[in-house]
Amino acid sequence: MPNLCSAAQLVASLKPGMTVYVPGVSGESLAFLDALKAAPEHCTGVRFIGMHFPGINRSDYLGLHPEARQRAYVMMPGLRAGFADGRAELLPLDHPGIFRDIAQNVEIDLAIAQLTPPDAQGNCSLGLAYDFLPAAWAKAKRRVAHFNPRLPRTAGSFRVHVSELDAAFEADHAVVEYDSGTPNEVMLKHAALVASLVRDGDTLEFGIGKLQVGILGALNNHRELKVWSGMVSPPLLPLLDAGVIRGKGQVTGGVALGDMAFYDRVGRDDAFYFRPVTETHDVLKLGLIQNFCAINSAVEVDLFGQSNSDALNGKLVAGVGGLPPFVVGALLSEGGRSIIALPAATDDGRFTRIVPTLGEKSLTALPRHVADYVVTEHGIAALRGLSVHARAAALIAIAAPAFRESLSQSWAEIAKRL
């Protein structure tokens, strides 16, 4: 066994100038975070690095101390204050780029890993999150585990042996949970349209959220589906129970995200298998999966088919995440499809989300040459093989009816300039 310490002792060992890797999503050690909050003076001059998501991770490492620093890849609420004084670094990278940055560009003095307690052979499972830890683990000068008995022991392609650890602390502590919510009737109609593009035997990738809950719920009559995705969540369970997905290792993910009942299931069900980003988001691997169907969302799509996924009225609200590699992988796959599903308008109906062009307040996550299917609650725009004029017409046809005339007028002006 490694040297045992407390989380408080670990925090007390931090020094100015250190870089500390802290896992995100459901891999985040909330016990270590609580220890940091209890002794914020030890965060002076410490730089934290990791992949954290707004709405999932509630942590604010930059806010622990006025002299704390953070290297981040997705906009979090706590990062905004650090832009003014230069304490926050935000790198605009997708998942493969983030993995490379952690592995190649940053010296890591301390890496924290939330793990299951070791088994009889001394092996520890990563439990819920396999995504980015391997990038930091291979190079960290000091490797410390939080042994959390609440984690499920999951099957995966990466594990940690106790002999690799410099120290460990034991804490039976809450883990990050997430509720995707319940779709309303409009979302269910929208979800059914998306599900109509899924074929028996497809391998699916999908995100999280109410619409994704509806999409998975609309697949109960499909057969022989498989999953290869960055995140897996509770709406998968009815498909497993109904035999729509069946077989050992047929659900591949990087992160499990849900409630404790779901976490218990992923530890018991051999359908689940977990891999790091270098495997789940490898475009070449994805392209070799036949009938790979990537289902993702966007903030807005313009009439050229370009997608903005992370800026809202000029305000950065997230990052592109795994979207680009999954879309490209789907287009490389024999029989593959990329589906972007989004509401036709904002919740209050005041603004269209099918827009003439992405403007100065938008950011392009997907360029026009990778556009494939776009789906709103009003229909499906199948863009593959269409000219720019036919593509614009198809997208206008699935826009909210109140905006179709103005979109047609805007396209006529755009077309004059082409």
Description of the molecule:
The chain has 418 residues and is an alpha/beta fold. The protein is built from 14 helices and 23 strands. It folds into two domains: 168 residues, Glutaconate Coenzyme A-transferase (3-Layer(aba) Sandwich), CATH 3.40.1080; 233 residues, 3-Layer(aba) Sandwich (Glutaconate Coenzyme A-transferase). Strand 13, helix 9 and strand 14 form a beta-alpha-beta unit. It is globular and about 70 Å long. The mean pLDDT is 96.
Based on the model shown, name its key terms.
globular; Glutaconate Coenzyme A-transferase; eight-stranded mixed β-sheet; eight-stranded parallel β-sheet
How would you sum up this structure in a few lines?
With 418 residues, this protein is an alpha/beta fold. The chain is 27% helix and 20% strand.
Number of domains: 2
Q: Under the CATH scheme, which architecture of the largest domain would be assigned?
A: 3-Layer(aba) Sandwich
What is the distance, rounded to the nearest whole angstrom, between the alpha carbons of the first and last residues?
Answer: 67 Å
Instruction: Give me the CATH fold name of the largest domain.
Output: Glutaconate Coenzyme A-transferase
Please provide the count of β strands. 23
Largest sheet: 8 strands, parallel
Q: What CATH first level of the largest domain would be assigned? A: Alpha Beta
The chain-level structural class is alpha/beta
Going across the biggest sheet, name each strand in turn: 1-10-8-6-2-3-4-5
Helix content: 25-40%
Give the overall average pLDDT: 96
